[in-house]
Design brief:
161 residues; alpha+beta; 5 helices
Amino acid sequence: MKRIVAALLLLLVLTVPALTLAQEDDLQQHKDPILAGALSWYVPGLGQFYAGSIFKGASFMVVEFALMYGTIISIAEVELGVTGGISLGIKISGKDGDVSSTQRTTAIVLGTTLIVVHFINIIDAVNTARRYNMELDQKIQPKLEYDPEMKAYSFGISGYF
């Protein structure tokens, strides 16, 4: 009986500090890199937000929306108006008269840059999720597992030392 109590006390002494010091971020699940890339495909920077890199996500979002706005504004007129006091409308139409070659060149350069930055964004979202998973695997974490064959639970600490 004394051995069981001593073993339980030793287990308690070893695991309670790990449980009490563990933050919510330490107990997070792995992030799916494919989902991170898909999120960044549809909304720039959302994959980085998902993978825990808020600053990079916000940076990509601002840069891509600025490039998109610059591309549209260089070849079109954007009119923002409130209709009927209830809804907000955006009207995008071609500029009156011909678009100059400088404006066309600006639109092509900004549009091409937007496409390149967008693909860099997607690749970075995938790599950020992979990096998050690698860092998560290297942290010391308490782990509770159930073995259906033995019908028993096992408790331990996992991580790299």
